[in-house]
Design brief:
This protein is α/β, with parallel strands linked by helices. It has 2 domains: 5-154 and 330-340, no CATH class; 166-325, Glycogen Phosphorylase B (Rossmann fold, 3-Layer(aba) Sandwich), CATH 3.40.50.2000. Helices cover 37% and strands 16% of the residues. The strands form 2 sheets. A 6-stranded mixed β-sheet has the order 2-1-3-4-5-6, with no helix packed on it. It has a 5-stranded parallel β-sheet with strand order 8-7-9-10-11. The longest helix is centred in the middle third of the chain and has 31 residues, at 110-140. The protein is globular and about 65 Å long. The protein starts with a strand and ends in a 13-residue tail after the last helix. Residues 344-353 have low confidence and may be disordered.
Length: 353
């Protein structure tokens, strides 16, 4: 039985749904496994027993506010400041409060770089009202505003499996996912201009074709889906077994720079090859291989696979990074330490409404 209370909050005019991290059910879909384990440990580590946690994707409203309320925002690719950030004890959110843009891409692919820059500027502009609102509240309030913290996405479509030593894995390179997020209607600009996700992943596929042509002995496990929705239909066990069989996992950007695939790869000890990462605390010094262009795969992958010592060291560094920064235990400790620092005395809770 949790010491504090947990609810899933979807949208206004619907009652918050009681949620037990010890018996999470399927209220959160494929997100359940990771966040339930995080909050089980968090509930054990925090000193207070009067808190109300709302798990949500809603950055505009909550069903209740006060110094006893903690918001856990699981989905916000716009990286916005919640409207209610000044009315709760703390906010912990995936996707953080800012994104990044890889200016180095202009050197290799000007059009994809320009499209990514346009998206970055658009999202930055959309974040301005929230930032201004928080500045106003900071000016009006005599005491500091409640803190905002970024937490990892964690894994989604993944199950627990016996660990295979990376050196003994039969697959060199793995990717399974969509290229286009969805089929856009004729009137949509994305239909004619494409999207940063689609361009990035298309370039990755072309680089893989060249890589396979020059290195036919490379063992590549590649599965491309027509849309993000169809990729989620893949059996979690099948997806997990394929990832556990691979040494290196390609992690192209999606609709945002944060992706579940990065954390899933790290959890299984696959070496992630990534593009630009957001400026989140857990990405600092992350032992990933970062590329400005997917064309770098042609030289990068064969060189890595030919060096067993480097390969083993990279695998171990990734596992250590997962354990200390992104695992359920590490994130629970992060959340609990921040909550424990909020108040010296617990504040009586009020009933959820």
């Amino acid at each position: 039985m949790p010491r504090n209370r947990f609810f899933v909050w979807r949208k206004p005019f619907q009652a918050p749904e009681p949620w037990d991290p010890d018996r999470p059910g399927d209220l959160l879909g494929n997100r359940t496994g990771y966040i339930s384990k995080v909050l089980q440990e968090t509930d054990r580590l925090i000193r207070r027993a009067d808190l109300v946690f709302f798990l949500t994707a809603n950055v505009h409203t909550l069903p209740e506010y006060g110094p006893h309320v903690v918001a856990i925002i699981l989905e916000d690719q716009g990286a916005r400041i919640p409207d209610y950030s000044h009315k709760v004890a703390a906010v912990f959110k995936c996707h953080g409060l800012s994104q990044s843009f890889n200016a180095g891409l202009f050197k290799y692919h000007p059009y994809p770089a320009a499209l990514s820059a346009a998206q970055y500027l658009r999202d930055t502009f959309r974040r301005l009202p929230g930032r201004l609102r928080r500045l106003v509240h900071a000016h009006r309030q005599a005491h500091p505003l409640p803190p905002l913290y970024t937490i990892p996405l964690g894994y989604a479509n993944q199950v627990d499996l016996p660990f295979i030593n990376p050196i003994d894995r039969p697959v060199d390179l793995f990717f399974a996912g969509s290229i286009a997020h969805r089929t856009y209607p004729l009137r949509s600009p994305q239909r004619w201009l494409s999207t940063p996700k689609q361009l990035s992943r298309g370039m990755m596929l072309k680089s893989l074709e060249r890589l396979q042509k020059h290195h036919p002995d490379l063992v590549l496990d590649l599965e491309v889906h027509p849309s993000y929705a169809s990729s989620t239909w893949t059996s979690p066990e099948r997806y997990s077994r394929r990832m556990m069989s691979a040494r290196i996992c390609l992690v192209p950007r999606g609709s945002s720079l944060d992706t579940f695939r990065l954390f899933e790869a790290a959890r299984f000890g696959c070496i992630p090859v990534v593009e630009t990462l957001p400026p989140h605390w857990f990405y600092q010094d992350a032992p990933v291989i970062q590329v400005n262009t997917w064309e770098a795969l042609t030289a990068l992958i064969p060189a890595l696979l030919k060096d067993p010592d480097r390969l083993q060291a990279a695998h171990q560094a990734v596992l250590d990074w997962w354990a200390t920064r992104c695992s359920e235990t590490a994130v629970a400790r992060f959340i609990a330490s921040r909550i424990n620092a909020l108040h010296t005395e617990p504040i009586p809770s009020s009933p959820s409404r």
